[in-house]
């Protein structure tokens, strides 16, 4: 990032899993949730401004 470019905001994603969910299933569910979020917003990661270019693709839930 050059000095002339504004700093991009730091974004965070939280995946919440209930305690009642078995550990093995929770790991797989969290992995799928993170992949779905990545695929939904991967164009945003490459965008220079960070606010445009969102993917219009939707992941099947």
N-to-C CA distance: 36 Å
Secondary-structure element series: H
Helix proportion of residues, in percent?
A: 25-40%
Q: Based on CA inertia axes, which overall geometry fits?
A: elongated
Strand content: under 5%
SS summary, helix count? 1
Number of strands: 0
Low-confidence stretches: 50-54
**Major sheet characteristics:** none
Taking all residues together, what is the mean pLDDT? 78
Evaluate the radius of gyration. Answer: 15 Å
Structural class label: mainly alpha
Features:
mainly alpha; single chain; elongated
What would your notes on this structure say?
The chain has one helix spanning 23-46. The N and C termini lie far apart (36 Å). The chain has 1 helix and no strands. By secondary structure, the protein is mainly α. It has a domain at 18-46. The radius of gyration is 15 Å and the shape is elongated. Helices cover 39% and strands 0% of the residues.
């Amino acid at each position: 990032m050059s000095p002339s470019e504004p700093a991009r905001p730091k974004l965070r994603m939280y995946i919440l899993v209930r305690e009642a969910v078995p550990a093995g299933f929770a790991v797989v569910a969290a992995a799928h949730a993170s992949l779905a979020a990545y695929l939904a917003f991967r164009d945003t990661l490459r965008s220079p401004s960070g606010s445009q270019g969102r993917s219009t693709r939707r992941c099947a839930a």
